[in-house]
Amino acid sequence: MMGNLQKLNICQKGRELAAYIYKLVHDGPLAYGFGLRDQMQRSAASISSNIVQGDELNTSKQAIKHLLNV
Prior knowledge:
The protein has one domain (5-68).
């Protein structure tokens, strides 16, 4: 399992969600809510980041910890 998490559907969906949220808060009604916009962008980007970071630790225990943070 280790080393393959970037290929999983959840990682791909996380990247798609992040792209959607970035577009939504850039063009939509949240474009001027700076605090909320920034928090939503950081949260969306952290989904894939946590998955990849957990995978790079090369231990199942640490990977699971990072996946639970998603």
